[in-house]
Amino acid sequence: MESWRKPRPQQPGENAPSIFAVVMRIFSGIQPTGAKTLGNYAGGFRQYVETQERGEAFFCIVDLHSITVEYDPAELRDSTLNLYAMLVATGLDPDRSTIFAQSHVAAHAEAAWLLSAVTSYGQLGRMTQFKEKSERQEFLSAGLFTYPVLMAGDILLYQTDLVPIGDDQRQHLELARDVAERFNTRFGETFRIPEGQYPEVGARVMDLQDPVSKMSTSSPLAAQGVVRMLDEPDTIRRKLRSAVTDSGREVKHDPAEKPGISNLIEIMTVATGESVEEVEARYDGQGYGPFKADVAEAVVELLTPIQKRYRELRGDDRELQRLLAIGAEKARNASEPTLHSMYERMGFVMPASGRFFGAARPKGL
Ligand code: AQP
Question: What is the CATH number of domain 233-314?
Fold first, then answer.
């Protein structure tokens, strides 16, 4: 039996190992830290559900990313299962999509090291998220700096075509594309070049108290400007009622002049599926008061069934662990051929027995 799945030799004009079917590949990652927010719903969860219908989808709980800032190990364990339950509660189907934890698939850490050879130090230093987050850290880890390389590996290992993400990840995806192109040029065509998918509306949900800043997972838990996925209905109502609005009383989408109201309009469209124009027309001449109350009710209506489903799923740790194990095996099988090509094209000697031993060996390898 072959210990490696060997890719068919590259054909002229191909830019991906031909072992992959021509079905569209989708990949996105989400961190298991903090209490996830309505922003994560807008840029993450809701896009995952929509894209899982369109091809072969991989959704990764990126726990290795979570250790790049100060964190609590006991909480990380718990929040990994929390996040799995939330991914399913918001509509992912574990039979249809591969949902897994990044740390269960060693290829991610390996790919990051290999790709660091074709990642520019200067480009990493220009990442705005690194600059912003490093200002908030007492201890600045090397991992926070190299985080985008790990993210590039996450995406590229799956020969990803489409990456559904929020606007804050745009620069990281650009870096992943640059890294893939540099690798392909230097070592031969190995990776598909992924495209980002950003929501037309709600790609950057803003903080309700400070509508020129992103609604952030890492804001203090008590922050009134951040709606959490698991907030009680009355908390959601209170937060939306006290959202900062702008002068005037017209419900009009104009992010430059009216950031507060524009953010609420976007939240309304995320919650109801209406267009911006429909929301504007519905509240024409009504002022801010009734509008804010209705946005709150729409968000409560959106989140209540998700929360109910989440609680049901979260009650069964063993089932979540079982599902995670299935996801990990599917992800290992899907990523291994790309990792193999990377090692081979970079000139590494392949161990005759293959790289996997005992339980770590995915089926078929
Ligand atoms: N406010 C947002 N609006 C739209 N999309 C957002 N996303 C995050 N915030 C918003 C998208 O959610 C997905 C998962 O995010 P993540 O787990 O990678 O990270 P995070 O929750 O944004 O937490 P971070 O990185 O620690 O940042 P802070 O603390 O600044 O929030 C991604 O697709 C992201 O775009």
Answer: 1.10.240.10
